[in-house]
Amino acid sequence: MKKRIVLLPGDGIGKEVMHSAKEVLTAIAEEYNHTFSFETHEIGGAAIDQYGTPLPETTVDACKQADAVLLGAVGGPKWDNNPSHLRPERGLLGIRKALDLYANLRPIKGFKNLLHASPLKEEIVSGSDLLIVRELTGGIYFGTPSERRDNGESVVDTLAYTRREIERIVDKAFQAAQGRRGKLTSVDKANVLESSKMWREIVEEKKAQYPEVSVEHVLVDAAAMKLITNPASFDVVVTENMFGDILSDEASVLTGSLGMLPSASLNESGVGLYEPVHGSAPDIAGKGLANPVAMILSAALMLRYSFELEDEAKIIEDAVQSVLDAGYHTADLQIPNGRKVGTEEMTKLIVDYIRTLNASKCIASCYY
Ligand code: IPM
Ligand code: MG
């Protein structure tokens, strides 16, 4: 299979972990006879420094031509006081909109030997395996431009959705639930917001099309509570942009390992942007300490969702699990009696597993 992949390392540890993902994908390409070509472009703070904008046209054009996009992370203290149109985050929001990446999938599943690192008791968090399906290109993030009024004495942000925008994300979530445990939790604030009432109506309308999926509606405040008290009760959670932003950060710490969580943002034609849930971690950037696993697992999601290479995606996921099982971990994690390694060594262990696995298969199938 031949694919063009655009790499947007961005800022901070984004650059280091992107390097790791590229090494893993190169190993997969060599071992399983694929041709992946890589093209690197700037986004976020790095793009502001080089081109005076967080999202240069050349970056958008390259992403539009690509079969898939991998993104590291954007942001850092250097740009914190910039005016809002010159903040690194604008680059991220801009590329989501430019590629119409309306469906953000954030799977959250604990790794066996890391559950002790959760802030929750192991018996509460064990068995948690949920998928947050967050609407990503509408809502309050993209309302009519926010403005300060009355000489700065008042301010307006608007939360707008079209029926079609809600329908497509709800469909995506139902389909995801069909392929999992068949339970959909729709999260809204229908006791207050008109947009949430419409959201709830649409979920109710759609459920007839997916009879095998059971549906519940939960208000966002109650959902935030339930994520802590009974996380294992969730399967697929679907929600609008800002609720999804907040709940996915909350859910990401359940497993005690923010550095492990990947995400996929998809449009209607299957082109996707894949990025870790964690940020640019400026405090450890450039030190070789970053955990590359979330980025590497994001590359696995790319193989699964954009290229339909399920076997190769699984191999990467197995490689990560085996390396953790062997006790290796980066500085952000603790494994009892484990061995702390840096970004490069962690990557090499994962790459070695992929290469050895393939070699042993060949020995088995080629000679016996
Ligand atoms: C995320 C991030 C972004 C968001 C920021 C960096 C704009 O928090 O991907 O969750 O709010 O969507
Ligand atoms: Mg967020």
From TrEMBL:
Q: Where does Mg(2+) bind?
A: 221, 245, 249
Q: What stretches pass through the bilayer?
A: none
Single GO molecular function: NAD binding
Residue numbers binding NAD(+): 76-89, 279-291
Q: Where is the Isopropylmalate dehydrogenase-like domain?
A: 4-350
Q: Name one GO cellular component term.
A: cytosol
Q: Which reaction does it catalyse?
A: (2R,3S)-3-isopropylmalate + NAD(+) = 4-methyl-2-oxopentanoate + CO2 + NADH
**Positions marked as site (Important for catalysis):** 141, 189
Required cofactor(s) = Mn(2+); Mg(2+)
**SUPFAM superfamilies registered for this protein in UniProt:** Isocitrate/Isopropylmalate dehydrogenase-like (SSF53659)
Localization of this protein: Cytoplasm
Is Amino-acid biosynthesis among the key words of this record? Answer: yes
Under Enzyme Commission nomenclature, its number is 1.1.1.85
Q: How is the cofactor bound?
A: Binds 1 Mg(2+) or Mn(2+) ion per subunit.
UniProt pathway: Amino-acid biosynthesis; L-leucine biosynthesis; L-leucine from 3-methyl-2-oxobutanoate: step 3/4
Please give the subunit comment from the record.
Answer: Homodimer.
Function in brief: Catalyzes the oxidation of 3-carboxy-2-hydroxy-4-methylpentanoate (3-isopropylmalate) to 3-carboxy-4-methyl-2-oxopentanoate. The product decarboxylates to 4-methyl-2 oxopentanoate.
Name of the protein this chain belongs to: 3-isopropylmalate dehydrogenase
Q: Which gene encodes it?
A: leuB
